[in-house]
Automatic annotation (TrEMBL):
The gene is LOC105680483. Belongs to the methyltransferase superfamily. ETFBKMT family. This is ETFB lysine methyltransferase. Signal peptide: none annotated. CDD domains: AdoMet_MTases (cd02440). It comes from Bombus impatiens (Bumblebee). GO terms for cellular component: mitochondrial matrix. Transmembrane segments: none annotated. The lineage of its organism: Eukaryota, Metazoa, Ecdysozoa, Arthropoda, Hexapoda.
Amino acid sequence: MSRVMQAWKKKTNARFDCWTIEKIAFFYKSFKRTISNNSTGIDIEKFCDGIVECDSEVARAICEHTEIVRSHMTPEIQLFLLTPNCNLYHAQYERISESKGIKRSVFLEPFWSIYWPGGQALARFVLDEGRTLFECSKEILDLGAGCGATAIAAKLVGADRVVANDIDRVACTAISMNAILNRVNVKVSHQNLLYELPERTIDVIFIGDMLYDAEIAATLIPWLEKARNNGTRIYLGDPGRHGLTEDLKKRLKVLRRYRLPENVQKENYGYDSCNVWEFCG
C-alpha cells in the first residue's frame, strides 16, 4: 500500500500538547535553494531575513522528498506535496514504517503532504470570495490545516490575522514552509483546540476534510456548535465522507459545488466534486 493510499486510513491517536510554533520557520541553505529553483522572482534571502530557525531536519526531509507544485484547483498557491514524481509517493507503507531516522518520522503519516479535495475547494472559495468574506473579520482559524492552503489563501486575499492549526508537528513545519513559499505570514499552532472552549475572538473557522469518520465528527460538531453560538462563521469543505451524515447535512447550507480536476479525482477514490458548506448550528 503506497503512502498516499495509506493516508486515507484513520489517523492514529496523537499525543496532544500545547506546543505552538510562534514564528514561520527559517530553514537552511538547501531549503533556500529549493525555493530559488522553483519560484521565479522571490528574493529568498531578503524574504527569510530574521526568521528563527526551527525543525530544520524535518524541513530537509520535506525538501528532499516532495515537489513544489501548482497543479491543483488553486494554482495561485505553491505547495510542497507528495506527487507521482516523488519516490516516496510510490513507496510501500511497510518500507517506510520499518525504516529508521527522520524520513520515517516525517512520512509515516503524511496527511500534510496531500492536498485533499475539501482543502482545495475551501481554498478556491477563499480566493474567489475572501475579500468580501473577511471584510469585517479580524481572526481566522484554519482547523486541521494539513498543508495550510486555506490559511495561505486567506492571507493572500487580505485577512488580518490567520492561525493554521494542526495537531501533527510535521504538518506545522510543512505549513510554515508553504507560507514562506507563498510569501505570507501565518501563525502556526499545534494545540489541540477541540479540548478547549472556542475563543470568542475567532471570526471565521475553516475546516477541510475532517469528516473522515463518525467518531471525529462526534467530537467536532459540539465544538462547532459552541463556536457558532459565539458568533463565529464556520465553513467546511468535504466531498462526501462518512462523517457527513444526513443529520449533519440538515445543519449545513451548500454555498459552492466545485468540480474536482481529473488528477484529484484519481487520487481520491473517484470523488468528482466537492462542496463548501456553511455550518448553521
